[in-house]
Amino acid sequence: MSKTPRKPSQSPALQLGRAVDWPQTPDEAKLDRVPNPQADTDYLVRFTAPEFTSLCPVTGQPDFAHLMIDYAPGAWLVESKSLKLYLASFRSHGAFHEDCTVAIGKRIAVEIKPKWLRIGGYWYPRGGIPIDVFWQTGKVPKGLWVPEQGVATYRGRG
User: Fold this and answer.
1) Is 115 within the bounds of a domain?
2) What backbone phi and psi angles, to 5 degrees, belong to 62?
3) Distance (Å, rounded) from C-alpha 93 to C-alpha 11?
4) What CATH number is associated with residue 79?
5) Which residues are annotated as a binding site for substrate?
6) pLDDT tens track for 103-113
7) 3 state SS of 3
């Protein structure tokens, strides 16, 4: 994954409403944004991706995570079809859990410039150790209702 987040898309041609090819890498995936019709109101948007997959950069075996993305929009919203395609582009991408989780949060933040964003990556165990990764931009806007993400830490059989 590149270390420098991409600049926001300015193209008016959204992926929404038309057939598009699945991106093969996160770098080639286009993340669309649309104007926020409620930009004068603080509110929370939550995306849940309970079946996120990427590849271990060492073994090439699949890694699985439950991602929770919460953000308080500013002028822009993330267009959900493009987010789905972006997240799917990680299926053949090798990166550690920490890199995937933080890179996704940073990319969304660069593209839409939210008032606030957080991402929780709840990774399923490999080698007996689950890894949970959390990242956010700044402080929560005053008065914003931010519910708990509600994803239990891994408990195995118990």
Assistant:
1) yes
2) -70, 145
3) 25
4) 3.30.1130.10
5) 78-80, 97-98
6) 999 999 999 99
7) coil
In terms of pLDDT, which residue wins out, 59 or 2?
Answer: 59
What region does 39 belong to: left with phi over 0, alpha with psi -120 to 50, or beta?
Answer: alpha
Alpha helix ranges (H) inside 16-123: 80-88, 97-112
For residue 113, being part of any structural domain is answered with yes
* Domain presence at residue 91: yes
As for how many domains the chain has, the answer is: 1
Provide the domain limits for residue 73: 26-137
DSSP 90-151: GGG-B--HHHHHHHHHHHHHHHH--SEEEEEEEEPPBTTB--EEEEEESPPPTT-------P
- Residue of 56, 70, 100, 132 marked active site: 56
Is residue 106 in some structural domain? yes
Catalytic status, residue 100: no
What per-residue confidence (pLDDT) applies to 132? 95
Whole-number pLDDT of residue 157: 57
Query: Annotated binding residues, as ranges?
Result: 78-80, 97-98
Residue of 27, 40, 63, 70 marked catalytic:
63
For residues 117-141, give the mean pLDDT: 94
Q: Give pTM, 2 decimals.
A: 0.89
